[in-house]
Structure formats: structure tokens, C-alpha cells
Amino acid sequence: MDLLVVGAGEIGRWVADTLTAERSPVDASVTFTDRDADVAADAVDSRDATSVPVDAETTHDVVCLAVPMSAVPDAVAAYASRADEGIFDVSGEMTAAIAAMREHAPELERASYHPLFAPPRVPGNVAVVVDEPGPTIEAVSAAIETGGNEVFETTTAEHDRAMETVQSGAHAAVLAWRLAGEEVREEFHTPVSAALADVADTVTEGAPGVYAEIQRAFDGADDVARAAREIADADAERFAELYECARGERDPRERHD
After folding, report:
1. 144 and 137 in contact (C-beta within 8 Å)?
2. What is the pLDDT of residue 138?
3. Cys-Cys link to 249, which of 32, 70, 244, 257 (CB 3.0-4.6 A)?
């Protein structure tokens, strides 16, 4: 398989490494391209790979788009013609990605993958929508699974709705807790606050641009803000109701009369 990886950052390199790993069932060769030529060159330096300029006219068996979520539709339009067999993205927002692939790559195998982890924390779960199946996409999924990851199928609507909770809402809650709190001595931490501090450290070690893309793409932060405001304003009775809701014992819209 001749693979063109568009975007030579962490996730693009993860795709390349996964498909070319020793245990991978895919016999893949990798070409990187990136709008920052130095980034592409750096990706090539430590791998058996090549790079081409973004405006090259090379064609490949399959094209992988490892670009920011907001850039996927334009990237699909720009690179679909350079794929002979298949095209897929690993961006994290599936509705717009699949729509763009249907429009610009109607004859190709198509899929949208979302690794639900940062590359330093592999392996993990990988959501996928296979919009047009075939042997190329099957081989990509097999290589990801051989790397120890759990690939599970979903729909664009289910995936993007879930991201409102597990990404946008979760990140907003953690960052808000970190921003609202003050530094305290280690001895003061409770099991809950210590766990939150660890999670906040994990969130803030990433690239802010990536987290900004998530907030742009998915709702969820406003729901967290509203819930926090209701907790802050609740009397004892309403707080008990909300507590039961958090346990999963009640619908949060219900109230005692």
C-alpha cells in the first residue's frame, strides 16, 4: 500500500507508524506532506518514508488526512484526486469529513477514524465510520487493531454527539475547575481533587489549538456551565435532586413538588 499522509504532526506520524509496524498486516510505504515543509522533513528523518510538497501532483493508493478538524473539508477537496483506491481522515469530527468525502471522492473507499487518545498514550479505542468499504479500508482497520487498539464502528451522528460529552464537556469542566481553583499544599488534596489535578495536568500538557478545535466543533461546554450554575444556586432540596441525577437515579429535568 502506497500511503500519502497529509499532515505530519503527532497523529499523522501515528498513522504512518501503525501501518508500517513490524506486526502490521499491511505492506505500506509512506509519503508525508505538510504545509510546513520542516515538519514533514522531521517526520521523514526518523522513518523509512519520503516527503513531497503540498502542491505536488503525486498519486497514491490511499490518502490519509491528519489535519485539524476545521481543515478537513478543504483538504478532502484538495487531495481526493491524488488517491487511487481510498481516502480516510483521523481528525475527530466525522459529519463534515464524511460529507466532504462523499462529494469529492464518490468512487473511492471512504472512512473516518477517530483515535480517542493522544499518540503518547497508545493503544486505545478508535471509533470509525466506514462510509464506503473495501479491501484498502479493511487493511487500514486491521493494521490499527494489530497495534493493540480496539476499533469500533459508529455513525457520524452518534460519534459527534458523544464528543459533546467526552471531549467538549469534559475538557470544559476540567479546565474550569483548574482556572477557578487556587494552589493548595499537597496535604490538602482529597482523593477527588487529587484525581482532578492529575486529569487537569493531562489536559493542559497538550496543544491549546487542538483543544480550541474541539470546543469549536462540538457543543457541550455551555451545558457544563449551566449545570455548574444550577449547582451553585441550588437549595438543599434541589441539590439533593441533582446529586441523585448525577448518580443516574433520576432525570435531571425532574423536580419534586
Report:
1. no
2. 97
3. 244
Q: Which helix (H) or strand (E) holds 129?
A: strand 125-132
Per residue in 120-142, pLDDT (tens digit) is 888 999 999 999 999 999 999 99
What is this structure's pTM?
Answer: 0.90
Please answer whether residues 74 and 104 qualify as being in contact, where contact means their C-beta atoms are separated by less than 8 angstroms.
no
Cα 151 to Cα 148: distance, rounded to the nearest angstrom:
9
Residue type, 135: P
Query: Which residue's C-alpha cell is 439533593?
Result: 240
C-alpha torsion sign, points 132, 135, 137, 138? positive
Q: Are 97 and 89 in contact (CB under 8 A)?
A: yes
What torsion do the CA atoms of 56, 38, 42, 14 make, to the nearest 10 degrees? -60
The strand order across the sheet containing 150-153 reads: 49-51, 29-33, 2-6, 60-65, 83-89, 109-115, 125-132, 150-153
Cell matching residue 23: 506486526
| φ and ψ at residue 132, rounded to 5 degrees | -140, 100
